Amino acid sequence: MKETTVKLARFATATALAAALAGVAIAPAAAQQPSTTTTHPYSCSNVGGGPGHTVNCSGLVTVNNVLNGTTVNIKDINVLTGTQINDLQVALANVADNNVNAPVTVQLLNLETAAITTYLTKFGITVLPVNVGICAGSICV
Fold it and tell me: For the whole model, what pTM was predicted?
């Protein structure tokens, strides 16, 4: 019962966030300025194409090993450009660095929110929380 409530709360939060951000004017990816690169020892990459495409990010997201071995899998049919991959990596690193003292599950939920927000605000792509899987070791959200 508690797990269902948590999932519903996450979905409601993501839906509200998506609705709030829907009014933001989104520039085409080609018009975006390149963002700074991250120095974290993890990377994101496109895996596959078409309906089975995912973006996978793996490695050490935080600087203090709290999220060592973290994987982020985002199911989406859109293959991201190099600039988009870099923007996603930077967004995840920024969120991770700002939440290093939070419990691991909170950090993972914050990474999920960052991924969803980055897709929507930077790429103009809506991704539902159910399509974002984030794990640090055996802890997944």
Answer: 0.70
